[in-house]
Amino acid sequence: MKAKILFNVLAVLGLAATVVTLYFFYDYNRREGISPVLVWGTSPILVFIVITSFFQLRKSLRTHKRR
């Protein structure tokens, strides 16, 4: 049970970190002009993390409601 809670906390932190990172990329790119290869290289990884954490959170909330 504790591992599940820890995993959910990590998923939420992952989502928050991804949003902050994407905003940082957007802001920095607007000011300095970052290489698009870096942005397009890391964006799919970040999107994958977001989708995975979202579905994990949804699954754990659904199983939590059942009890």
Q: Brief overview, please?
A:
With 67 residues, the chain is mostly helical. It has helices at 2-31, 36-66.
Helix tally?
2
Gyration radius, in Å? 15 Å
Overall tally of structural domains: 1
Low-confidence stretches: none
| SSE run | HH
Characterization of the model:
- With 67 residues, this protein is mostly helical.
- The chain has helices at residues 2-31, 36-66.
- The protein has one domain.
- Helix content is 91%, strand content 0%.
- Helix 1 (2-31) runs antiparallel to helix 2.
- The protein is elongated, with a radius of gyration of 15 Å.
SSE topology sketch:
Elements (H helix, E strand, L loop, with lengths): L1 H30 L4 H31 L1
Helix pairs in contact: 1-2
Any descriptors?
mainly alpha, elongated, 67 residues, single chain
